[in-house]
Amino acid sequence: MSGAKSERMSGACGASGIAYGSIALGARGGPRARYSRRVTSLPASAALSLAQVRRVYPGGRVALADVSLRIAAGEFVSLLGPSGCGKSTVLRLLSGLDQPTSGTISRDLPGDAVPGYVFQDAALMPWASVRRNVELPLMLRGEPAATLRERVDAALRAVDLADSAEAVPRELSGGMRMRASLARALVTSPQLWLLDEPFGALDEITRFALNQTLLSLCQPTGGDKPATAVFVTHSVYEAVFLSQRVVVMARPGRVVDEIAVDVPYPRDAGFRTTPRFAALCAQVSEALQRASVAGASA
Ligand SMILES: Nc1ncnc2c1ncn2[C@@H]1O[C@H](COP(=O)(O)OP(=O)(O)OP(=O)(O)O)[C@@H](O)[C@H]1O
Ligand SMILES: [Mg+2]
User: Fold this and answer.
1) Which of 21, 150, 172, 254 could hold 176 in an S-S bridge, CB 3.0 to 4.6 Å?
2) How far is ligand 2, taken at its centre, from the CA of residue 84, in Å?
């Protein structure tokens, strides 16, 4: 992969930067490994990989017991599971904001591989205009003024916020704030998107619209290469609509199932009304139910 940066870090290391590779879901075989893996073709070469990753917080809380996961370049994967099963921890580890206690994380992505990280809360600077918020990552990188404005304008157009560039966050609706947050991630043209329940607080219609926006950013039509995306959600429907693979986690921090969504992009609203969508949602719901029961009895 030309220009690719390959990074690798092991547990308890003090490695700086972000580790990408593939996310290998699934713990070592053990008494709890009783779920049938429905995905038979895990990517051979991975952009992101976690191998037997364990994360124990000070005080002894086991956030991840044993997670192995591989994600291919350009793949869109959702993480689904009950509260506290370690989804956000996986994202933090993939971003490099956190380090594993043991195990290995690696990533191999083109470009500078700085992820576009989108949080549940839009997390905008309240005193700054939408434009100032969106340009921040570029300013921090020392982007020349000549191209900075152009890139910010393009990002704002992509999320349909060009008309609100000079507004401050309190003047925006919740959906508009999330679009500004997406633009702030998009402006750096990330090869990797890490999204932690970004649309959880939004009404269904706004969420559907932003799902579509996100897909157009990560899975562009017209020959541009797709970005790799790891998306945390509590919504079965959202996971199925967006993803190529849904990874189901249970407490304490382990992968218990994964379901392939073998429906090609582009996907539009029509996909939500197909029998295939309904069948996949039922399949994912059942897996989530099993994961909740498994977590409760763990
Ligand atoms: N900084 C921390 N210190 C101690 N324990 C933590 C810390 N962060 C997370 N945990 C614990 O690790 C476990 C996994 O947390 P994590 O935030 O990854 O879960 P999650 O699946 O994202 O949950 P939710 O769906 O509620 O966001 C939880 O038991 C949580 O209490
Ligand atoms: Mg979380």
Assistant:
1) 172
2) 7
